[in-house]
Specification:
With about 100 residues, the protein is an alpha+beta fold. The protein is built from three helices and three strands; from the N terminus they run βααββα. It is elongated. It is about 20% helix and about 15% strand. Strand 2 and strand 3 form a beta hairpin. It has a domain of about 35 residues: YefM-like fold. A three-stranded mixed beta sheet has the order 1-2-3. The mean pLDDT is about 80.
């Protein structure tokens, strides 16, 4: 189908709908010579949804419900010696001191 540029300008949206529906290209002419071609897109299918695109690709190995029977060093007290050099929290500077408030003059 060929159509003059002036007519295309007046019916642009209708012609785009027609090309989308029929998938038939339209040649736009100016003074009888082809200047442009209105064609449908190559892939008329909508993109695949992102939700669930990786379904079935994960693999569960072992028991994910039970916790491993390991003792943590925090529970056994093994890491207490790491903190002996730090002293008690009360001896740390700034701890236990009243908060100072500054006023504008």
């Amino acid at each position: 189908m060929q159509i003059p540029a002036g007519e295309f300008k007046a019916r642009c949206l209708q012609l785009m709908d027609r090309v989308a529906r029929t998938r038939e290209p339209i040649i736009i002419t100016k003074r009888g010579r082809p200047v442009a071609k209105l064609v449908p897109p190559d892939d008329p299918q909508p993109p695949a949804p992102l939700f669930g695109y990786m379904a079935g690709t994960a693999e569960i190995r072992g028991d994910i419900v039970q916790t491993p029977h390991l003792e943590w060093s925090a529970m056994t007290g093994e890491e207490d010696e790491l903190y002996t050099d730090l002293g008690s929290p009360a001896s740390s500077p700034g701890v236990g001191e009243p908060r100072r408030r500054y006023r504008r003059k």
